[in-house]
Write a structure and sequence with these properties.
Shape: globular
Number of domains: 2
Largest sheet: 15 strands, mixed
Helix content: 40-55%
Number of helices: 15
Distance between the termini: 25 Å
CATH architecture of the largest domain: 3-Layer(aba) Sandwich
Structural class: alpha/beta
CATH superfamily of the largest domain: Putative sugar-binding, N-terminal domain
Strand order of the largest sheet: 9-10-5-11-4-1-3-2-16-17-18-15-12-14-13
CATH topology of the largest domain: Rossmann fold
Oligomer: single chain
């Protein structure tokens, strides 16, 4: 069967978020880390998500990587392309959402795409072009303090207008309430006015269903994973996708349990605090990492000690905005982030070599550093822990067995996520091993 959906995600956790929703909607999905430089086994696969680390890099580099991913997906015969970014539209006035979308549209020869970041089940909604996180505007949700992409404007039409030379339009809730056909007519009307990017209001799952129906034939769609969950049903209605039993089956999990957290979101800070009430943790400090190898060695020794007694154990650089700013003021934003990412990658590589087989990573940048350090190239997507976060499994280059890996976007998951994730994995794979 031909590949139906080829997705390009601008960070690793966002890729896993989308892949999770595709599996939950009945698609067999593989996630690849970076553009593959060798063949990938795609037998019995309906969708492939290419995970890039392009959200915070220079716009020209993000465009080049995204076009390379598109070329590979086209070679695999993908019917539709999906550009996945965060449900909080993480970017700057220079990009990278607008420049990448423009480049993909041009390469595909398409005149228009939609922008659907909303993920209502996780509290991300759009109304009159304004993005809300729960009941707060984006710029009052804590995202205004993001260390790399502070979001200070909730008006996505205006904000995206800074990133692209092309007109940006709106498909309002009033339009969506009239159904898919009316929504498509509205999009066509905007296209006749040379509006290439359309921000779409989305308040609930019904809005996502209407949008998916309206754009199922578009060469390119963009947004968060909510739209990804709505599309497979439209593929089935057109006879492109057949029902599949257990699209998210994984093998039985084994090995020690470790959590690595670099996200500084409010959700992750609460998850770290909850975990520390029940399990041991070690706080990584960028200023101490900058002084040499001693601090990293202390973290490694701490992890080994507590993993030997059963685990799970947490190593975290998550900190409140004041501490993050203090480190960035001393080291610089880029240097502070690089130190933490490098340390997390080294910790993961060492500890997976030493029998860690179940690993949770929090934060998009941290996840990218960890999977790169481990040499992970491909993930099979399994069942969900919390909305947007599945367990995955990957063969490890040069190592025996499978690594069970959960890559969590900073803003996702309940307060008990870290403590509950391993119990969910044990239940999930025990059931699968008996199936």
């Amino acid at each position: 069967m031909a590949l139906l959906l080829g997705a390009i995600a601008d960070d690793f956790t966002g890729a896993t978020d989308l892949a999770n929703n595709l599996v939950r909607a009945g698609m067999r999905c593989v996630q690849v880390l970076g553009v593959p430089d060798s063949s990938v086994e795609l037998t019995d696969v309906d969708a492939v998500v290419v995970a890039l680390k392009s959200r915070s890099i220079p716009a020209d580099d993000a465009v080049a990587q995204s076009l390379a991913a598109l070329a590979w997906l086209q070679d695999q015969g993908a019917r539709q392309t999906f550009f996945k970014y965060c449900s909080t539209f993480d970017s700057t006035e220079a990009g990278n959402i607008g420049p990448v979308a423009d480049a993909l549209l041009k390469r595909l020869g398409s005149r228009q795409t939609v922008m659907v970041p909303a993920f209502p089940i996780n509290g991300r909604t759009v109304y009159q072009g304004l993005l809300f996180v729960g009941d707060r505007l984006l710029n009052e949700s804590g995202m205004e303090h993001h260390p790399l992409t502070p979001m200070t404007d909730a008006d996505l039409v205006r904000f995206l207008g800074h990133q692209t030379p092309h007109p940006v339009g709106l498909a309002s809730r009033t339009v969506l309430s009239r159904g898919a056909a009316a929504t498509r007519r509205h999009l066509d009307s905007l296209a006749e006015q040379n509006v290439r990017h359309v921000i779409c209001d989305t308040l609930d799952e019904n809005d996502l269903d209407v949008l998916a129906d309206a754009v199922v034939d578009y060469p390119l769609v963009t947004g968060g994973s909510g739209l990804g969950q709505a599309l497979p049903d439209k593929y089935r209605q057109r006879g492109w996708l057949q029902p599949v039993a257990e699209p998210g089956r994984l093998a039985k999990a084994s090995g020690c349990a470790l959590v690595l957290s670099g996200s500084c979101s409010r959700a992750t800070l609460a998850q770290v605090a909850h975990f520390l009430e029940h399990h041991p943790g070690f706080a990584l400090d960028p200023l101490s990492l900058a002084e040499g190898d001693k601090h990293l060695s202390q973290a490694l020794a701490f992890a080994r000690e507590h993993l030997a007694s059963g685990g799970p154990v947490l190593i975290y650089a998550s900190a409140d905005p004041e501490r993050v700013k203090a480190a960035q003021d001393t080291l610089g934003v880029a240097r502070a982030g690089e130190l933490v990412e490098h340390a997390m990658g080294q910790l993961a590589s060492c500890l997976v070599d030493e029998e860690v087989g179940r690993l949770v990573v929090a934060g998009g940048e941290t996840s990218g550093a960890v999977v790169s350090a481990l040499g992970v190239q491909q993930l099979r997507i399994g069942g969900q822990i919390d909305p947007g976060v599945p367990w995955t499994q990957s063969p490890m280059p040069g190592r025996e067995g499978l690594l069970s890996l959960a890559l969590k976007s900073g803003n996702f998951g309940g307060e008990d996520f870290f403590t509950r994730a391993f119990a969910v994995l044990d239940e999930m794979t025990a059931e699968e091993s008996c199936a």
